Amino acid sequence: MADDWGMLLFRHLIDAGIEEAEAGELTDDALAEAAAAGVEPGSMYGPALTYAGALARTVRQATRHAAPPPRRRDAIVLRLRNVTKRYRRRQVLREVNLDLRAGEVAAVIGANGSGKSTLLNICAGLTRASSGTVQRTERIGYAPQHEGVAPLLTPAEHFRLFGAACRMNRKEAVSVGSHLAAQLGWRPRRNVVASHLSGGTRQKLNVVLSELNGPDLILLDEPYQGFDQDSYVDFWDQVFRWRNGGAGVLVVSHMLHDLDRVDHVLELQPVGES
């Protein structure tokens, strides 16, 4: 079964325009990760055709981690103009505007139902705005509010998988991921899959994955859910390291006492039916 799935994945990657050598490496990596987890690759990744499409899109969009373009401290990394989102008769967002530059942190606040997560999804390109414009840099990282990790993969396997999409070799990806984890006060244990991690530790994994490729824009949707006090402090220290390094950071937050440390505060109001 694994051989058949692997052959299908390889062929679909070739059909999607991936060079043969790279398609072979991606296929070998997927099969190795599934074997290490003790499951069939189809159970871990889904149909070969679907997974090949996702890999191909990621490869085409990825830039080399080793040589990112230089950051201009005044460059706009995210610009929102009159962004509105409507679901049938219910309007979630109305004319949201923001300019976020490299080396700045913006906090998104608002009551439940005000569209904070919807806005982050729009900024990440996962949801389309009903009207308005969104301009963003190509190199982005995104940590969703709800778990975006594969439950049967270990942290190191996540680092290798996400690193492959960024053209990082396996050793480099694990080294970078482990270093970033340590900055959040977490040292991943070997052979512990994501489903066996605490909720707060899974969120740390999400945060690390969002930064793995050194993005110019980092989108964080309340990623500190489940953090203890020390981890929460480590998280904000990391946010400001990103800012000092020239990245732009957009973070959804309900912790109002931290807002005096950010450059912009975007408060969303519930819109409701219209």
Compact summary:
The chain is built from 9 helices and 9 strands.
CATH architecture of the largest domain: 3-Layer(aba) Sandwich
Sketch the major β-sheet.
Answer: 5 strands, parallel
**What proportion of the residues is helical, as a percent range?**
40-55%
Q: Give the helix/strand class.
A: alpha/beta
Poorly predicted tracts of residues = 61-67
Domains (count): 2
Q: How are the strands ordered across the major sheet?
A: 5-6-7-3-8
SSE string, helices as H and strands as E: HHHHEEEHEEHHHEHEEE
> What coarse outline follows from CA principal-axis ratios?
globular
Quickly count the helices.
Answer: 9
What is the CA-CA span between the terminal residues?
A: 52 Å
Overall residue-averaged pLDDT value: 84
Task: Name the CATH class of the largest domain.
Answer: Alpha Beta
Q: State Rg.
A: 19 Å
Strand elements, count: 9
Structural overview:
With 274 residues, the chain is an alpha/beta fold. It has 2 domains: 1-61; 76-144 and 196-273, Rossmann fold (3-Layer(aba) Sandwich). The protein has helices spanning 2-15, 20-37, 41-45, 48-61, 116-124, 155-165, 170-183, 199-211, 229-244; strands at 76-87, 90-101, 105-110, 131-136, 140-143, 217-221, 248-252, 264-268, 272-273. A 5-stranded parallel β-sheet has the order 5-6-7-3-8, sandwiched between helices. Strands 4-1-2-9 form a 4-stranded antiparallel β-sheet, with helices on one face. Helix 1 packs antiparallel against helix 2 (20-37) and helix 1 (2-15) crosses helix 4. The N and C termini lie far apart (52 Å). Residues 61-67 have low confidence and may be disordered.
